[in-house]
């Protein structure tokens, strides 16, 4: 059996190549709504994967970028999946302002951390398998999508369809520590409440008005009472709008609400509570319309997750690092795969910080160990229970 030392040696040998390819993909603007740029970034990644023998299947979109799968065939029986997105939160022109740069062992630039560093790491994991002649798998499919940053509306069905037949899914979102592996994330809910009231002169006839702002204020207080530190549930009203003029009783108001829940049971409870709050009336003759719901189900452990975590612990400690099992309040596409019962490990990419900011960076010194971890997981992952 190939040892961790042998894998790490190959991973370290690819460090300069990794940095070169990371620079090339980071320096392609690929904000979610920039279809041309997203497709260029996806095309760059497809070319890399095709170059090591992956079978490419493109799933075109008319408005957003095209999703794709890249599959390596082997002679074994295990079916494994790598998962990552190549869209970013940064608009076109960001690269011209802040191209990829290296300072003090860190790679700076848009999406170096989230998650182009992980995408390139996944490619090199497959490349190392080919270098070693390792093919003890039926298939390893790399699912790469173009719309994760807006909730994966066009790619969710593809992700779930591919994942259903897999023994394990490995998500290449950024890591937080060299010994860190993540197996649980909160589910993400996105709601909007729109209140309709009745306008009136605020000075001459306020009694004739029905304040949508006041109704919404009551609802926001009720929404915030759903927060539960014991369970980890958070409900926050984060974008509020209302009224038209200072001297007019507001006839319309709205709020966008973010919800994070650790379990599906808690998601159902909170959804029912939000529905009840929307239906309740504090100001007579107002009407509230509720839209939205759970965008990403909670990522919970399923049969087979603990076996993957034990394997990850063995690899991490074999590399000389302290193992850490992590969790997160943020969602990823791993939420979808775990929710349909497929053992999933997440945050396997290189370590980084400051995602979605002008100071986003990835720690390039962590690449050899994180690349070794992903490669060894692909080589040793057990079949799904």
Q: Could you describe the 3D structure shown?
A:
The longest helix has 21 residues, at 112-132. This protein has 11 helices and 16 strands. The chain starts with a helix and ends in a 5-residue tail after the last helix. A hairpin with a 7-residue loop joins β15 and β16. The protein has 385 residues and is α/β, with parallel strands linked by helices. The protein has a 6-stranded mixed beta sheet with strand order 1-2-6-3-7-14, sandwiched between helices. The protein folds into 2 domains: 4-186 and 299-380, 3-Layer(aba) Sandwich (Aminopeptidase); 187-296, Alpha-Beta Plaits, CATH 3.30.70. Keywords: Hydrolase, Metal-binding, Zinc. One of its GO terms (molecular function) is hydrolase activity. Its cofactor is Zn(2+).
CATH superfamily of the largest domain: Zn peptidases
CATH topology of the largest domain: Aminopeptidase
Count of domain modules = 2
Average residue pLDDT: 97
Distance between the termini: 23 Å
Précis, in short:
This protein has 385 residues and is α/β, with parallel strands linked by helices. The protein has 11 helices and 16 strands.
């Amino acid at each position: 059996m190939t040892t961790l030392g042998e894998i790490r040696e190959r991973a370290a040998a690819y460090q300069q190549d990794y940095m070169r390819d990371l620079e090339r993909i980071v320096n392609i603007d690929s904000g979610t709504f920039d279809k041309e740029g997203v497709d260029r970034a996806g095309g760059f990644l497809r070319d890399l994967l095709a170059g090591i023998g992956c079978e490419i299947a493109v799933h075109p979109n008319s408005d957003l970028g095209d999703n794709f799968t890249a599959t390596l065939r082997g002679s074994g029986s295990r079916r494994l999946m790598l998962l990552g997105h190549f869209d970013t939160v940064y608009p076109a022109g960001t690269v011209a302002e802040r191209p990829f740069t290296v300072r003090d062992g860190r790679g700076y630039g848009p999406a170096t951390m989230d998650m182009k560093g992980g995408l390139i790491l996944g490619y090199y994991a497959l490349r190392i398998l080919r270098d070693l002649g390792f093919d003890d798998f039926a298939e390893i499919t790399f699912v790469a999508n173009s719309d994760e940053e807006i909730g994966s509306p066009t790619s969710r069905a593809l992700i779930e369809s591919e994942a259903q037949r897999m023994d394990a899914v490995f998500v290449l979102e950024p890591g937080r520590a060299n010994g860190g592996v993540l197996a649980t994330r909160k589910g993400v809910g996105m709601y909007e409440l729109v209140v309709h009231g009745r306008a009136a002169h605020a000075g001459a006839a306020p009694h004739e008005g029905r304040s949508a702002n006041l109704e919404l204020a009551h609802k926001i207080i009720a929404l915030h009472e759903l927060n539960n530190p014991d369970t980890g549930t958070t409900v926050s009203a984060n974008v509020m709008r209302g009224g038209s003029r200072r001297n007019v009783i507001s006839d319309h108001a709205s709020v966008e609400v973010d919800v994070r829940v650790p379990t599906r049971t808690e998601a159902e409870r909170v959804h029912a509570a939000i529905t009840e709050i929307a239906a309740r009336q504090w100001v007579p003759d107002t009407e509230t319309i509720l839209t939205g719901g759970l965008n990403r189900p909670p990522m919970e452990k399923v049969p087979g997750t603990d076996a993957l975590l034990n394997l990850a612990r063995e690899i991490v400690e074999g590399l000389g690092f302290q193992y850490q099992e992590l969790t997160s309040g943020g969602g990823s596409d791993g939420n979808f795969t775990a929710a349909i019962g497929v053992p999933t490990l997440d945050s396997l990419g290189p370590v980084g910080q400051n995602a979605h900011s002008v100071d986003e960076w990835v720690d390039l010194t962590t690449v050899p160990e994180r690349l070794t971890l992903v490669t060894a997981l692909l080589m040793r992952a057990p079949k799904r229970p």
